[in-house]
Amino acid sequence: MPIDGGDYENKLNTIVAASDDYDLVWTSSWLFKYGDNVNKGAFMEITDEMLDKYAPTIKASFSQVAWNDVKVKGKLYAIPNFQTFTKTPGFVIQKRFVDKYNFDTSKVKTYADLEPLLAQIKQNEPGIVPFGMGKDQTRLSEAYGMQWLGGVDYRLSDPLTAIDLLQTDEYKTHVKLMKSWHDKGYTNPDAATVSDLKPLLASGNVAVVQDFTLAPGSEAGRKADFGGNEVVYVPIAEPTFTGVTPTMNAINYNSKHADRALMLLELLNTNADLFNLLTFGIEGKHYTKVGDNTIKIDDKGGYANNSGWIFGNVTNGYLLEGQPADTWERVKKLNEEATVPALSGFNFNSENVKAEMANMDALFKEYSPGLETGTIDPDKYLPVFTEKMKKVGSETVLKEKQKQIDEWAKANGKK
After folding, report:
1. What's the DSSP call for residue 65?
2. In terms of CATH, what superfamily is 5-84+243-323?
3. Which among 279, 334, 353, 354 is placed 20 to 30 Å from 273, CA to CA?
4. Residue 322 backbone class (left: φ over 0; alpha: ψ -120 to 50; beta: rest)
């Protein structure tokens, strides 16, 4: 059952609250959040016996470090999808503008470094949005020497200390920059309200967007996203291992078909034909083979899901026209070699501060879209936002996060 990305969390929360009947559901550390749903009792525990019987290939394909990353209080409630387990934050820019304005992407390390290009596009390219954003936009923390992992924000220079992002100078700098971009017309005017940026991107009229995961060899796939225009990736930080929780599938706690659900996940991780059917559709109707393992998607075919990372093992998938033949080997190599953050393996458990987190989340949805897209004045609204967050318990939550980090660090020999 397909659900639009912009409505996914709200609709799934409604389904869970109503105890509706379903078997498998996609969950993650960042949307329809895994930990929160485990605390609600929404997902079924997946035991070693279940994995051994119904999904042995999946069990063997992940390291113990990966399985530990998914566990909550020592128990497993979801199956990760095999894709890139790394985070390489940066920007995606249409190649035609990089070439036309001779823009040196190697010098881009922060948002501000994009300004010369954005200014030229605004001045010389009518109808083109220099920098595209949606209401769920959040900053690339690495651009400010920070990182978000395991449910906490921290500075790269001090990874074992949780911070309240809203009270940092870096956050103030960012939202003020976004306000200036909004005022200069560098961003789409509806940024704070648009839930799905895909239609605007598909028009080819967006020059630059940000991306949290510049996956190896995926530029060809982004070409279709940008209206058939080639793109270049501009990473602003080295790849880091961020765990396997960004994309997983869980089983409903009261599913009557848990065995079949696991068997389906096993098939999606072992049967390339099934994986490619769900990911790309039907050969000759939705895509054409242009090589042994390479396809060209028919833009008018009527099925362009191209999101295998939500189903299973992406290395079972076809390559898109233009993707290097060694793309999947590069993904596997990067998974093995990426830098492991000091906080890797830590997952904040919000059970003790559920009420505070719920109230904070409501405030976040009220203020963050306007601040992060530059639509509202940070000088006026950031202090209001921060003060309201304090009143509903942000300082209590921060203390709980720090307490858990300290306990985790002690248990794992971290200093």
Report:
1. H
2. Periplasmic binding protein-like II (3.40.190.10)
3. 334
4. left
